Amino acid sequence: EPFNALDLPSREDLVEAMHQLAEGRPQLATVTVTHHLEELFPAVSHALLLREGRVLSRGAVAEVLTDSLLTACFGRDITVARRDGRWSAYSGRRVSGT
Question: Distance between CA atoms of 21 and 53, rounded to whole angstroms?
């Protein structure tokens, strides 16, 4: 998780650098491991969602990072937003049965 222990400005600098790398060299594949959607850079095209070591969903990022799939993954009522190519998630109450 490359963003661990970074403050907000440093995180944003790293997100921007990764985005520029992906945009400038689209032939390169990048893999980012994170628990925080805010750390995904705009050029991310695909996602793999894991829960307890098992694949919950995979595919195009907009099809994987949904309210319902993230709620199932984290066991909390999750609302996902995307603005200017950046993702964010808001956590609500714990969902029973997870």
Answer: 29
Contact 47, 59 (CB under 8 A): yes
SS (H, E, C) 12-52: HHHHHHHHHHHHHCCCCCCCCCCCCHHHCCCCCCEEEEEEC
What value, to the nearest 5°, has the Cα angle with vertex 52 and ends 42 and 98? 95
How far separated are the first and last CA of the chain, in Å rounded? 25
Comparing CA positions, the residue from 20, 22, 19, 21 lying closest to residue 41 is: 19
Q: How many CB atoms lie within 10 A of CB 1?
A: 11
Average pLDDT over residues 37-65: 95
pTM of the model as a whole: 0.82
